[in-house]
């Protein structure tokens, strides 16, 4: 029996191990690795926080369907390549990403706390080496108002890697 707020299991085989690079319409470029069923690593390659690297970010990943399949037909392959990924960072930033691998699109909502908008360069680092500092910035705030940013991006690189590969996103390696 499902607990309150618990979702049924999803087939994540189409996203796990994927390493992608995408660019949003505002020019921000990101590199993302879906490391396993609850973890991503990523690098911000350009934009207001370009140079930021995060490894081991805990996430929730679910497969989405554009419509529930009827009893007579199975979901199409394009429906099966649609995923929602969400997480909350130690900075207080919340992210919801919808990834369509077949269409090579990513749609993202980022909810930035006020302190990140006012001082984005404080987050530009290899976050894993500064977790306590990021949490202290978050706790000092100001958090409000929250600044939502809705973005559409195009994937221009997709490869499949092994799961839990620590070398896909390398904080010491410059952008390729």
Structure characterization notes:
It comes from Ceratopteris richardii. The structure is a single chain. The protein is mainly β and 176 residues long. The chain has a single domain, classed as Beta Barrel (Lipocalin). Helices cover 11% and strands 40% of the residues. It contains 3 helices and 9 strands. Strands 4-3-2-1-9-8-7-6-5 form a 9-stranded antiparallel β-sheet. A hairpin with a 5-residue loop joins strand 6 (82-88) and strand 7 (94-100). It is globular and about 40 Å long. The model has no long low-confidence stretch (mean pLDDT 90).
Give the gist of this structure.
Helices cover about 10% and strands about 40% of the residues.
The rounded Rg comes to 17 Å
Arithmetic mean pLDDT: 90
What fraction strand? Answer: 35-45%
Give the overall silhouette. Answer: globular
pLDDT under 50 segments (min length 5)? Answer: none
Keywords:
176 residues; mainly beta; nine-stranded antiparallel β-sheet; 9 strands
Write the layout of secondary structure elements.
Layout: E1 18-24, E2 29-36, E3 39-46, E4 53-58, E5 60-64, H1 77-80, E6 82-88, E7 94-100, E8 105-112, H2 114-118, H3 131-140, E9 147-160
Antiparallel strand pairs: 1-2, 1-9, 2-3, 3-4, 5-6, 6-7, 7-8, 8-9
């Amino acid at each position: 029996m499902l607990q309150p707020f618990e979702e049924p299991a999803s087939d994540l085989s189409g996203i796990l191990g994927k390493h992608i690079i995408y660019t949003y319409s505002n020019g921000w470029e990101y590199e993302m690795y879906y490391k396993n069923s609850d973890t991503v690593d990523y690098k911000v390659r350009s934009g207001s926080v370009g140079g930021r690297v995060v490894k081991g970010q805990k996430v929730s990943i679910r497969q989405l369907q554009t419509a529930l399949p009827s009893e007579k037909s199975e979901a199409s392959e394009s429906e099966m390549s649609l995923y929602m990924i969400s997480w909350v960072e130690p900075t207080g930033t919340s992210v919801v990403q919808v990834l369509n691998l077949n269409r090579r699109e990513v749609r993202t909502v980022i909810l930035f706390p006020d302190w990140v908008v006012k001082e984005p360069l404080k987050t530009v680092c290899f976050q894993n080496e500064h977790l306590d500092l990021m949490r202290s910035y978050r706790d000092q705030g100001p958090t409000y108002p929250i600044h939502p940013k809705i973005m559409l991006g195009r994937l221009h690189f997709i490869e499949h890697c092994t799961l839990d590969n620590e070398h896909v996103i390398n904080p010491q390696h410059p952008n390729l």
